[in-house]
């Protein structure tokens, strides 16, 4: 009796596994040409990119949109991190890379060697970093740069501190202790956040701008998801994370000039217009030194700008065509809109697009 | 079915070394040597990649510290979390294994054994998500209680973390992770204890516990240590679960219930590797080398203990 | 409530205190406690603790813990008085072992429940037939990741099981001398390789052979093999050691050559244990995330060739879905949990298969 039931179990198991394989080797949503007909697919093949995980959600949207229109093409993106992406790009392992910081020093030189000349460096993903908090009864919070710096440096420890109260007249702030949450992994978000604190509140923030949180102690969590989770999990907690992931959490308005500005994509997009291009990177590089201390109304200065790294020339014609087509789609209005929907990023301005489009269009096969 | 019946062809001579024997012995030996080769490869990789970090001046290293200063908190965190896990998991695992092998009714025991095996298969990232989403919030109360009543012990000095993502919880998550592994090994060993010894003990009037104490536990000691070491190995090297659960900030402390904790080596590699480049990668691999050496030391100790008491092994 | 407390108090304390005093109960001490006593004591303990807590402030956790403690103490005292010290210890150990089992089951069941309840939402046909190619936001599936995990883990198992088992056989049956000692030692060393280092090693190895930036399923399989071999060796070795020497000697005495003895007597005798060990080893590596992140990468479409380019795997798929979700977050997190659930189901099936195999080989002894 037992053996019968057991062999029946085995049969069911075998059937299940068999069915999985019998489903064919292609997934149900793959294979077959795009029946829309309108989209003509001119490029095919496979290219791979790697880099910043901040771009992952947007990249998924771009890849989906691009391969939807070009069914013969496959684009892979490994969100291994900016450092890993840059290293792989320099080594020639990937066709393009996403990076939360522009190339500097040795890596710029190495990248130029790889590309045999200039390196293409264009901002493709601009996203506001929100100061998120979880404090019962306070739905709208204003903070000056010095207050943000004081909170994260540990000098402001309760919510009813005069420094916070000064920014929020008429708001009943509780005496709850503040638990600041920072990233435990090295990240472009931390880099940009500490850069902002150092530039905007030099008196209250005496630490360096670093990708790794510069202060010992305190609550830390892995990745954007981790920070959001930790802020949600506690009471009186505050953290910094990609604004689109904040969900139900409160997002503080940051003082810019005389106003308090919230982390909206529109406000974040303006920062690039307020900033200067970094000199000496080459003609095809659009690296920006962000102007964190801007007092222009309606600009949100706590922003993460992520770049696409590529070469103007590729040894392989198919790779060059595919890279060009994909990058063109990424910076196109449709591409930026797709990212805004899927990842909550700020679409690039038309002025900027008109500057970088010729660079991307110039990608060609070497020789 | 054919294998169950052994019908040896009667021979007059003692077992001679046949061709088959030589082939079999040779391939067994070959497999062993292959392992040595693979390991030599890993060691060569670790050493070459760690070397630049070992010789680099302190000023170029992350944080501009000496390499030892960088790795020490990580090593401390690794050992502390693994120790908590082992101390909690081993006795529990032995009890669970005993319960399944000698206490639970046979029919239930099989199902339970199956459940435990299944839990060994839960991917570590799931334990991480569970730790952060379920265990950490649930243990804030316990940790507050520990801090209130046992706060005079440095371990529970506080201040208690508001989110519960503490060293104690990380240790608990690791304990839950390694519990199925130790249990699975212990259960197999207990089940293999000679039935004759057990029955003899019972026949002499021993209670069930006395029988277990006399016939089962001594027999299984080597297996138990081996299982515990497997578990410890996993706890020491666990990457994702610790990275997700623990609130790390480089503080060396025995305080288990606050939010400032040392990271562990493996978790630190996972956290810092994506953004690392150049010498930073070498430093991380150097820390991996240290973890490698620690696990080695732990295993040597276990082997030593097992070998001192190997008289219960059947094949020596 | 408070009256109830007092009543149950006296009920449990009564017999314990009265027993030694009443001489007509002493002869019974040589006998055993009546069958239902354990349950009676348990219920009484629960009521007592419940009553006390009701007066001071109730919490379920504390109630369960204190009930078990009181039950253990009461059982020990009662049994010691009635049945003597040896039986009492036995009963105490039974309670402790069972309680420990219960304690251990709480987190394990909680983990299972978390995975199942979160993962069931997307445990549908689409998840098993769709890849993520062209999918933004909701929908999509992990067909590509399921196949990737099966292929990579299959390759790793195909490499490490023979190597691991043969090594274990060598260590137990053949190995004497230096080489065996060295292998034993270095297998121990191997258990100490952190998973992420194994991934880095595999990546470096293939970067050396193929060129920088290489990503392929096979590299991941090699990384998993490095992690899996020591577990297979250790568990198999432990199981082979347990096989009584008498069996081997009996086989030799019948003139069976050593290799046949090992294949037909030694290994089948302990097949169940070996199969458990191997299943554990597979289970250990099938959920590995870190090495596959580095050596295999991720892709959105189906790739069945482990020697060419990136493949998706369930752990990596789940990890990235959790770490870098888009907006809204829910479909990403749902997919992550379902991927974890599928992973567990795969291991469950493997486990069943391993058990069937070991049954088929195991000699019918008991």
TrEMBL record, chain A:
Extract the NCBIfam families matched here.
3a0107s03
Q: What is the lineage of its organism?
A: Bacteria, Bacillati, Actinomycetota, Actinomycetes, Pseudonocardiales
Keywords from the UniProt entry: Phosphate transport, Signal, Transport
SUPFAM superfamilies in the cross-refs: Periplasmic binding protein-like II
According to the record, the segments passing through the membrane are: none
List, in alphabetical order, the GO biological process terms annotated in this UniProt record.
phosphate ion transmembrane transport
**Out of the domains of life, which is the source?**
Bacteria
Q: Does the keyword Nucleotidyltransferase apply?
A: no
Record keyword Transmembrane helix present: no
List GO terms (cellular component aspect). ATP-binding cassette (ABC) transporter complex
Q: Which residues form the PBP domain?
A: 37-334
Q: Which family does it belong to?
A: Belongs to the PstS family.
What PROSITE patterns does the annotation carry?
A: PROKAR_LIPOPROTEIN
Name listed for the protein in its UniProt record: Phosphate-binding protein
Example GO molecular function term? phosphate ion binding
- Stretch forming the signal peptide: 1-28
UniProtKB/TrEMBL annotation, chain B:
Q: Where are the transmembrane segments?
A: 31-55, 67-100, 112-145, 165-186, 239-259, 279-302
Keywords, sorted A to Z = Cell membrane, Membrane, Phosphate transport, Transmembrane, Transmembrane helix, Transport
Quote the subcellular location field of this record: Cell membrane
Is Metal-binding found in the keyword set? no
**What GO CC annotations are associated with the protein?**
plasma membrane
Any one Gene Ontology biological process term?
A: phosphate ion transport
- Where does the source fall among the domains of life? Bacteria
Q: Which GO terms describe its molecular function?
A: phosphate transmembrane transporter activity
Signal peptide as annotated in the record: none
Q: Which InterPro entries match?
A: MetI-like (IPR000515), MetI-like_sf (IPR035906), Phosphate_PstC (IPR011864), Phosphate_Transport_Permease (IPR051124)
Q: Does the keyword Zinc apply?
A: no
Q: Where is the ABC transmembrane type-1 domain positioned along the sequence? A: 75-302
| Topological relation to the membrane, as annotated | Multi-pass membrane protein
Matching SUPFAM superfamilies, A to Z?
MetI-like
Family membership: Belongs to the binding-protein-dependent transport system permease family. CysTW subfamily.
Q: Which PANTHER family match?
A: PHOSPHATE TRANSPORT SYSTEM PERMEASE PROTEIN PST, PHOSPHATE TRANSPORT SYSTEM PERMEASE PROTEIN PSTC
* Protein name, per record: Phosphate transport system permease protein
Species the sequence originates in: Pseudonocardia oroxyli
From TrEMBL, chain C:
Instruction: Provide the coiled-coil residue spans.
Output: none
| MF terms in GO | phosphate transmembrane transporter activity
Where this protein primarily resides, as one coarse class?
Answer: membrane
Q: Which residues cross the membrane?
A: 36-54, 60-79, 91-116, 142-171, 183-210, 216-233, 265-286, 336-357
Q: Where is the composition biased (Polar residues)?
A: 1-13
Q: Which CDD domains match?
A: TM_PBP2 (cd06261)
Cell compartments where the protein resides: Cell membrane
What keywords tag this UniProt record? Cell membrane, Membrane, Phosphate transport, Transmembrane, Transmembrane helix, Transport
Q: Which residues form the ABC transmembrane type-1 domain?
A: 146-354
This protein's membrane topology, according to the annotation, is: Multi-pass membrane protein
- Entry's Pfam families? BPD_transp_1 (PF00528)
Per the record, which residues fall in region Disordered?
A: 1-23
Q: Can you tell which superkingdom this protein's organism belongs to?
A: Bacteria
A GO cellular-component term linked to this record = plasma membrane
Its GO biological process terms? phosphate ion transmembrane transport
Q: Which PANTHER family did the record assign?
A: PHOSPHATE TRANSPORT SYSTEM PERMEASE PROTEIN PSTA
* Similarity section: Belongs to the binding-protein-dependent transport system permease family. CysTW subfamily.
Its job = Part of the binding-protein-dependent transport system for phosphate; probably responsible for the translocation of the substrate across the membrane.
Q: What is this protein called?
A: Phosphate transport system permease protein PstA
Q: Which organism is it from?
A: Pseudonocardia oroxyli
